[in-house]
Structures are given as C-alpha cells and as structure tokens.
C-alpha cells in the first residue's frame, strides 16, 4: 500500500510537470524572438515588424497564461504529496523557489502587462525595454527553477543536521553555481529557443503554403531559422556538457542511458541500438560504435566509465556504511541532550552514505542487521529501468540532429533570398516544417524524462530515496487528486490549442494583403542592423 502511494504520487507529479513543460519552452523561446523582432522594428521603423511582434505576442500571451496556471499547482504538491521531502530540504530547496517568485516571476508578470497594454502609452524604446525585461524575467525564472532541480540532481553546499533532522545550507554560493544546475539551465533554455523557432517556422511555412500574410511569414521565417539554427547547434554542444557532468556526478544515470552493464576498457563504445533485459541484466542485442561514448562522456582516451554492475557493487558498500550512520542517528535521536561523543563522531564519518541506508527500508526495519540478500536487493533497486532510459535519450538526440538539418536548410533559403522557391519548387520542405511543430516538445519531454526518471530511486541524489519522501496519504486520496489534475490539465491543454489555432487562422489583427513581393536577402532585410 505504501509503495502504491509512492508510485501514484510520482505519477501525479510527473503528469503535472510534463503538462507544465508543454508551455515553458515556448514561453522561454518566444520571449527572446519577440525582443529581437521589436528591436528590428525600433531600428528600422518599419510597421511590418510591429505587426509581427503583436501577432507572435498574442500567441506568447496565450501560452504564458496557461503556463502560469499549470505551474502554480506544482509547488503546492511539495506540501501535499511530498511532506517529508519539504521538511527535509525546505531550507535549501525553498530558497531558489522563493527567489524565482520574488525576482523573476514578479518581474516577468509586471512587464508582460506593459508589453500588451503599453503600445500607446510608452515610447518605442520604453516598450522595447519592457519586452526585453519580459525575456530576461522568463529566462531568470528558468534559472532559479533549474538551480533547485540541479541541487536535487547533485546536492552541494548543504549538510544534514542530525539534531534538526533536516538539511541546512552551508554555502549558498555552491548551491547557486552548482555545475549540474548551470549545465541544465543552458541546455534547457536552448531547447526552449529551438521550440519557439520551430513553432514560428512551422506556422510561417503554413502561411506560405496557403499564400497568406507573406510579408509576415517571410520575415518571421528568416529570423526564426537563423535563431533556430544557432540554438539547435548550441543544444547539441550543451547537451554534451550535461553528459559530461552526469559522468562526474550521476554515474548510474549515464550507465543506464547507454545500457552499459559491464565496465569496458577505456574509451568505452557507444550503443547505437540495443535491447536491454533487466532480468538477465544484459543486452540481448546491441550495435556498438567503438570509442565514441568514452570520448563524449570523459573527453579522454584513458578514463573508464563504470558499468551498471560495478556501480551496484559500489552501492552495496555504501549501503553497509549507511547502515552504520543510520544506527548512530537513532542513538542521537533517542538521547539528543546526552549523546556519546563517539556515537556522534561515528555518524559524522559515515553521514555521507546515510541515504543509502534508506534504500533498505522496503526490505528491513533494522538496516544494521540487513542480510546480504537484502543488501543486494536494495542495491539493485537503485538501478532505473534501462529500456525506457535508453530509447528516450535516443529519441531526444535524433530530434536534435533533425532540428539542425531543418533549420539549416530553411536558413539557407531565407538568407539567399530564395523563399519563393520553397513556395513553388520545394513545397515539401514547408510541409515538413509544418508537421515538425510538435517534435521539439517531444524532445523536451524526453529530456525531462531522462533527467528525472534517471535519478530514481532518489528524490535527492544519494541522500533521500523517493519512497521515504512522501506524505502520509491514502491511496484513494492520491488517486482522487490525480484524477482532478488530469481533468483540469487536459481541459487547459484543449483551451490552449483551441486559442492558438484560432489566433493562427485569424492572423495579424490589422490584416495584410494576401500576396506580397519577394523579400530581399536577410542582409538587405535588416538594413539598420547591418549598419
């Protein structure tokens, strides 16, 4: 029954997080594109760029409102479904979330109002400043959220206090500049930029195919293809940095992503395709490319990447050591005012493995007396299911390289002044662009799946298992809230898509002739910027 509560709570948070992240990347990316387009408008004074900002701004506004609505409930779940987690790490985890609300979200929300209602009340430069403030606030919001999430992936700058039974910050600098958090931030916002670029490219391609709003479509596709090509390249580079950090700090996650059961001689090979088998603890089939994984993950020729089985053996040692820390902690809690100094010293020496003792809780109530079979079971419980990790990662990577190819092709046509060729001779490229609109969301969701599912069974890597972090709820209570969230979020998603489609079909509010002459190459389209 307890495991069912854990699984349902995980499902509920995963569902709300994945729904919420349908809106986040588009908000992050469109905010930058709007600022770029309005900058061109202020520099050139051409009204077409103002119409572009207003049109894409309408879609941004719809997405922003729905993103806020789906995001607000997520933080309440920490107290509702994850009470012990909130109590255990509230001092650390709560700080970035509070700063995000006070610094980033308030700033973003304030200037969003100025963006929509300040066109006739602000000067051009003042309105431009408000638009850039929206973009800055949106990206700062992502920064603080990812600092909090990065700490869960790689907890630094904090220490467990056995007297208070909670984590306490020892260095906010380390929390802020956590390398995992920084790598996740740049990778995530770049993915948001690609999402927005493909969104603008896809809708603009639809306009070109329908021969509607050609001035807006051609200029939008020119900006978005350049922005998207640069962003798609950066996603690959920054994703490589995330993989490197995973090898340093989350070795089990990396091993499961690669279905690497055994430790190979350096440099390790890369499994392009494999059929992992959790029961046999081996791959039934694999196509390998020699050396590639070792070069990517270690950036060297002589550094080994530990396999799953070796990491499980290391977990067994940590579990045994953690049991010693757990036993010392019970003695400290039993007599906090008169603790034997040797007991406290024992705890201090072994506290970094305390979380591993909690892996034994589903198997025994007395970790110090755990059998070898129980320790073995607890160690293997720290291995995520390899099959979904392996293929989710490869779907994400395949999408990433497809985005590079698509944006490069469209950028070539737009920069050479050949967009009309796409409308006549190469219409199939525009059709591909339209049908590619959902792909960035698929890639983003796969990325989050790899990041979060790959951390299991930990809610805080190496410190607190997910099974120990839940609230004292019944299965029915979680099922009811899960059903309510599914109904609510599904309704909001239908509203989002309906409003988006309605705005896209309507087009710019002030209208535009259905046909327009061919625009010049990009260098001539932005004369003031070129100067």
Strand order, sheet with most strands:
1-2
Overall number of domains: 1
Mean pLDDT: 86
Largest sheet properties: 2 strands, antiparallel
Task: Lay out the secondary structure.
Layout: H1 2-20, H2 24-44, H3 47-80, H4 83-117, H5 124-153, E1 158-161, E2 166-169, H6 172-176, H7 179-210, H8 214-249, H9 251-257, E3 270-277, E4 282-289, H10 292-298, H11 308-334, H12 341-350, H13 354-358, H14 372-380, H15 386-415, H16 419-424, H17 427-435, H18 439-453, E5 458-460, E6 464-465, H19 475-506, H20 522-525, H21 527-530
Antiparallel strand pairs: 1-2, 3-4, 5-6
Helix pairs in contact: 1-3, 1-19, 2-3, 2-5, 2-7, 3-4, 3-8, 3-19, 4-5, 5-7, 7-8, 7-17, 7-18, 8-9, 8-15, 11-12, 11-14, 15-18
What does this molecule look like?
This protein is mostly helical. It has one domain. The chain contains 21 helices and 6 strands. It has helices at residues 2-20, 24-44, 47-80, 83-117, 124-153, 172-176, 179-210, 214-249, 251-257, 292-298, 308-334, 341-350, 354-358, 372-380, 386-415, 419-424, 427-435, 439-453, 475-506, 522-525, 527-530; strands at residues 158-161, 166-169, 270-277, 282-289, 458-460, 464-465. The strands form 3 sheets. A two-stranded antiparallel sheet has the order 1-2. Strands 3-4 form a two-stranded antiparallel ribbon. It has a two-stranded antiparallel ribbon with strand order 5-6. Helix 4 (83-117) runs antiparallel to helix 5, helix 7 (179-210) packs across helix 17 (427-435) and helix 7 (179-210) runs antiparallel to helix 18 (439-453). The termini are far apart. 45% of the residues are buried. Residues 516-531 have low confidence and may be disordered.
């Amino acid at each position: 029954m307890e495991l069912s509560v854990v699984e349902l709570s995980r499902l509920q948070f995963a569902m709300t997080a994945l729904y919420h992240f349908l809106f986040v990347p588009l908000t992050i990316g469109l905010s930058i594109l709007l600022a770029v387009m309005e900058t061109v408008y202020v520099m050139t004074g051409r009204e077409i760029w103002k119409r572009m900002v207003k049109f894409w701004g309408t879609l941004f506004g719809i997405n922003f409102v729905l993103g806020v609505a789906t995001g607000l409930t997520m933080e309440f779940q920490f107290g509702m479904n994850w009470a012990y987690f909130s109590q255990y790490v509230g001092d650390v985890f709560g700080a970035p979330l509070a700063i995000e609300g006070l610094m980033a979200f308030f700033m973003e929300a304030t200037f969003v109002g100025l963006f929509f209602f300040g066109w006739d009340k602000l000067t051009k430069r003042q309105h431009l400043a408000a638009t850039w403030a929206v973009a800055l606030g949106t990206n700062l919001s992502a920064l603080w959220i990812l600092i909090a999430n990065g700490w869960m992936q790689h907890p630094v700058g904090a220490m467990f206090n056995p007297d208070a039974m909670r984590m306490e910050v020892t260095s906010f600098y380390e929390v802020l500049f956590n390398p995992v958090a920084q790598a996740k931030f740049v990778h995530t916002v770049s993915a948001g930029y690609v999402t927005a670029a493909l969104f603008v490219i896809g809708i603009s391609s639809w306009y070109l195919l329908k021969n509607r709003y050609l001035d807006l479509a051609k200029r939008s596709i020119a900006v978005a293809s350049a922005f998207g090509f640069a962003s798609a390249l950066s996603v690959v580079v920054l994703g490589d940095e995330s993989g490197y950090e995973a090898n340093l700090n989350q070795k089990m996650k990396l091993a499961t992503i690669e279905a690497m059961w055994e430790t190979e001689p350096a440099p390790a090979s890369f499994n392009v395709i494999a059929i992992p088998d959790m029961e046999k603890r081996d791959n039934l089939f694999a196509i390998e490319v020699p050396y590639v994984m070792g070069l990517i993950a270690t950036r060297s020729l002589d550094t080994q990447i530990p396999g799953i089985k070796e990491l499980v053996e290391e977990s067994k040692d940590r579990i045994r050591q953690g049991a010693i820390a757990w036993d010392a902690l019970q003695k400290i809690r039993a007599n906090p005012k008169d603790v034997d100094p040797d007991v406290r010293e024992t705890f201090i020496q072994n506290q970094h493995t305390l979380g591993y003792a909690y892996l034994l809780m589903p198997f025994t109530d007395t970790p110090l007396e755990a059998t070898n079979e129980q320790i073995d079971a607890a160690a293997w419980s720290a291995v995520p299911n390899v099959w979904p990790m392996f293929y989710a990662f490869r779907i994400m990577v395949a999408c990433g390289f497809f985005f590079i190819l698509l944006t490069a092709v469209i950028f070539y046509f737009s920069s050479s002044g050949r967009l009309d060729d796409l409308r006549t001779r190469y219409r199939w490229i525009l059709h591909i662009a339209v049908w590619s609109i959902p792909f960035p969301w698929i890639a983003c969701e796969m990325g989050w799946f790899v990041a979060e599912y790959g951390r299991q069974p930990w809610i805080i890597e190496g410190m607190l298992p997910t099974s120990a972090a839940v609230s004292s709820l019944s299965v029915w209570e979680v099922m009811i809230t899960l059903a309510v969230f599914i109904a609510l979020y599904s309704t909001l998603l239908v509203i989002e898509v309906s409003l988006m489609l309605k705005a896209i079909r309507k087009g710019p509010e002030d209208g535009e002739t259905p046909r327009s002459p061919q625009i010049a190459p990009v260098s001539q389209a932005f004369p003031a910027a070129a100067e």
